[in-house]
Amino acid sequence: MNHTEELTRYTANFVDELAANGLTDVVISPGSRSTPLAMTIAEHPELEHWVVIDERSAAFFALGMAKKKQHAVALVCSSGTAAANYYPAMIEAFYSRVPLVVLTADRPHELRDTGAPQAIDQIRLYGDYAKWFHDMALPQVEGSMLTYARGKASRAVNTAKENNPGPVHLNFPFREPLIPDFSLENVWGARGEKPFYANVDGKRRLRQEQLETLKSTWQSFQRGLIVCGPQTDRAFAAAVTELAAAWQVPILADPLSQIRAGGHSKDVVIESYDTILRSESIRKQLQPDFIIRFGAMPVSKPYLFYVKEHGDIPQFVVENAAGYREPAGNKTEMIYADATWLCRDLASMTDEAFDADWLQTWQQMNQTAKGHLLEPDNTDAVTEGEAVRCLLDVIPDKSSIYVGNSMAVRDLDTFFMSTPKSVEVLANRGANGIDGMVSSGMGAAAASGAVTLLLGDLSFFHDMNGLLAAKHHGLNITILVVNNNGGGIFSFLPQAGHEAHFEALFGTPLDIAFEQVADLYGGTYRQPLGEAALKQALDESYHDHGLSIIEVKTDRTANLEWHRDKWQQIEDALRSDKE
What we know:
Oligomer: single chain
Distance between the termini: 88 Å
Radius of gyration: 26 Å
């Protein structure tokens, strides 16, 4: 058997097994050494491939798609620094628990460490950020090599998905010639009735005696809190709100918890806890007896202050599989169980509620804060908070928001009030970086449904290469760019007090005409003035086909003052309510 046939059958069996294990989408970064993988994937009838030229953009595109689909997505690139450009997204995928299957092409062993072009050390390139790494054998078909290829493909998909999902990395050395021959008979090989490693994955569920122990611990308390941080389980919202209602316990719901939107009851949901907890004196007044947290740590920094200041309070953190996400450093009891099933099991055991006055206190404070936050301003200028408020008023049902970091996610936290609309909120909160945000939003848009990408001007600039995906693949996406001409979040930090270096090092104004960017990538551009015009622009964008960019220009100083005024008004009102 010649080299081309061995290359073709080996690669085709591997690729076919990816599909056999349920993988449906592959993002390809063009290159020469990856030709066997790229062409075979493009040829496979069950796989959809997405070509994204910039490797860093491609990796974040895959990340956004995997987040939206809640399913593993594969990546393919050539050898050399192409693979290194996947690194930022690999880090984000690891920390935000997103399943990616990264397939890097490599020089064969005899060309490694010889000065050959595009030959770098790709062995364990991503270090501990890959859940599993394997350096694949050179393509062969003798003996068990085709079952070897299938076994590694099956294991890769399963490992990416199991327990805490995350990225895996397989490195493929290929010798030239690189072109596969798809005219071969039975090119896809012998797929079994089941995947090579059939995987029956159950949910972790506490035993009855464990549930009883928790119940007896909590029965001695009166004032409990349920805190829901970023998570993506679509069944969780109904289960946790039913539990909280039965217990008469408030839920502090992060905007990425998927609890503020949807058809479930929200009577016990406290959306404005970030604003409420900005006051140190109010944080002291609201001392709980215990805290149960589901999901990652919330976005809110005031909540972090709150748990640190009440570090002696018993805290329980629920993780679906494993992990120690407790950045406050408090003594914590970890509960390893599927969050949705845990809520259902606890609700079925409930025979008494906690202190209803405690819940009522939180509800009254929440209503006071919301009244001020939703109060219209008598100015024509649109602040950053108002831009987010306008978006939430008009965003379609059954759609998604992909939100950037820094100010964007914090304004969403502040202004995203409970709604019966089905609105999923996604973000890259694993490493909290601004890189790759445009590409991540594009990947989510490629997955399904209407997507609105909400981000600042620096995040937009940082990943403008990602806009090509909308043009190339005909994606429908609305991008709301809140442009304060620089790093607005730094105005809220101590660095703002050092005026001599602030603008150059932190403010970093861009002075870019984003209208020209929209034209470059074939998008529709709007720059509305005023809230009514912004709502109209957003509504029109949802009926457009393709890329829509809406730019709202704001002033960093005015935005800082506006936020501080709002927070002070709310603190004064909350103090007045207590008197």
